[in-house]
Amino acid sequence: MARILVIAEQRNGKLSEATLELCKAAKEIASGLGATPAAAVFFKDDSLAKEVANYIPEVFAVVDGKLGAYDADYYAQAVKAVVEGQDVKGVLIPHSYDGVDYAGKAALAIGAGIVSNCNKATVEGGAVVFTRNTYNGKIQEQKSVKTDKFVATFEKGAYDKEAAGGAGSVTAVAVSLGDSRRKIKEVIATMAGSVDISQAKVIVSGGRGTKEKDKYNDVIVNLAKKLGGEYAASRPVVDAGWTDAARQVGQSGKTVAPVLYVAAGISGAIQHVAGMKGSQCIVAINKDPEAPIFNIATYGIVGDLFEVIPAMMEALG
Amino acid sequence: MKIVVLVKEVPDMESKFKIIGDAKIDESQIAFKMNDFDEYAVEAALQLKEKFGGEVVILSSGPERVTKEVRQAFAMGADWGIHVSDPQIDEGDNYVVAGALVKAIESVGGVDLVLTGVQAEDDQAGLTGVFAADMLNFAHCTNVVKIEVGGDQKALTINRELEGGLNEVLEMAMPAVLTIQSGINQPRYPTLPGIMKAKKKRLDLKKAADLGISALGEAGSKTKFHKMYFPVSEHKAEIIQGDAKAAAKTLVDKLRNEAKVI
């Protein structure tokens, strides 16, 4: 029977949560197609393959000293080898930093169409239809592939994590890896040693809508102080140098879950939401009524943050 | 150093979008601009040129109006450009567009580096750079936040952004494709003399036939578009009505007495 294959993801020998989410996705898609769910694990030994076997019935282990850390060329080669040897119909890859780096190459290597950055997959008339965010999360679209095989990448949180419990089989697949054109020198931390906003009970976060550094300080920093919390930012504010990288909330920054998170002038792109959706109470202030942040907020005010925040300061007394 | 920058025109994401027939956005009411991530790529290319010499070529695919973004990159300091203009390419998916861009890159010849944004703000696919690298048989790296060029101008040391504030430092040889992450630099504004010069810079127009492209339109695509729609959220915020003053007062009251979080 054809297989729906998850490509596992690891950093420093630790499986990513996205891997477990895709195990759930693979089971759903496989059940709709009458296929079987499986996973491929590329690592320097078979320890992670054994771990993944707790979540999915069939695991293919490609073991090679070259696979200790992720590499685009090796991963594309390994995907091709497993897909061609094991009757694979669909390949599921996390839409993560590593996944984005090789999924397109893997798709070309196996001659498959790819739908990237998906948040859902449904089976309609024997074909898999993928749903994905476009236009900064404002519009969703549905796509499928025209090729016999498919590759899809899924955004983090698209599926719940599969629970451990099964005892799947682990089968070694021998792959003769060629060369990689990249060499990893080291992994460095770029925001170490600064403030730790992740412990704050109240966080006031500003986005692109704060317009400039002085205005960001004026509204965001002051409201944070008034509420006895920390100030933070979405990526564009840090990119522009208005505040430190250590205060960035989102996929590439900190993950926070305060009691109160105020998002002002933040549209609510998935990369930002990934870092704050666990907050207990979310307030969104944005002049764009269609901003996706209103979909996850508890309370929303559609308006100009430069009017709303001073009014909040006044109301707080 | 010869650098090609792939630039895409996208709608301003704060536009009020309208969808026509579940199939496309109404472009008549929309302002277009350069994809943010590509602007960082243009700046990165200009900084490399300033350090090591060479030329920066802007490459964009799309209708006539995309020449505005190409000229913007010229005004920032890029040397010349190629406008790939063919409805048959525009109707294709990422695979078709990447294939067309690759043919145009090959037509430039002797390219050391191809830079583009990590993704387009409209499509959010993040595929073009990786596809182009594979089709060109170049090394590549995505989510680049730092570029250093070795003394011989053949080797690169790259920082690839990872989750949670980590960077992977990589070495690779040119030619290469790098997809540029926002924040790598502060893109410059075009100067008035720059804008004047931009009008006279060389911009080659290429059709699919000029580039010898075979995979075209829907037929050449590997994916099929079904429909687009506005997402229906299961959870919507309680929108607090009133002018800024009244809404703020109600909000503070709710935070104190309803949510009890302050």
What does the model show?
The complex is a heterodimer of chains A (317) and B (262). Chain A has helices spanning 17-33, 47-52, 72-85, 97-109, 213-226, 235-239, 270-273, 305-316, and strands spanning 3-7, 10-11, 14-15, 36-43, 58-63, 88-94, 113-124, 127-134, 139-145, 150-154, 169-172, 182-189, 202-206, 230-233, 260-264, 281-286, 299-302. By secondary structure, chain A is α/β, with parallel strands linked by helices. Chain A has 2 domains: 3-172, 3-Layer(aba) Sandwich (Rossmann fold); 197-316, 3-Layer(aba) Sandwich (Rossmann fold). In chain A, helix 7 links the parallel strand 15 (260-264) and strand 16 (281-286). The longest helix of chain A is centred in the N-terminal third of the chain and has 17 residues, at 17-33. The model of chain A has no long low-confidence stretch (mean pLDDT 96). Chain B is built from 9 helices and 15 strands. Chain B has a 9-stranded mixed sheet, with helices on both faces. The termini of chain B are far apart. The relative contact order of chain B is 0.17. The chains are: A alpha/beta (317), B alpha/beta (262). At the A-B interface, helix 4, strand 7, strand 8, strand 9 and strand 12 of A face helix 5, strand 9, strand 10, strand 11 and strand 14 of B.
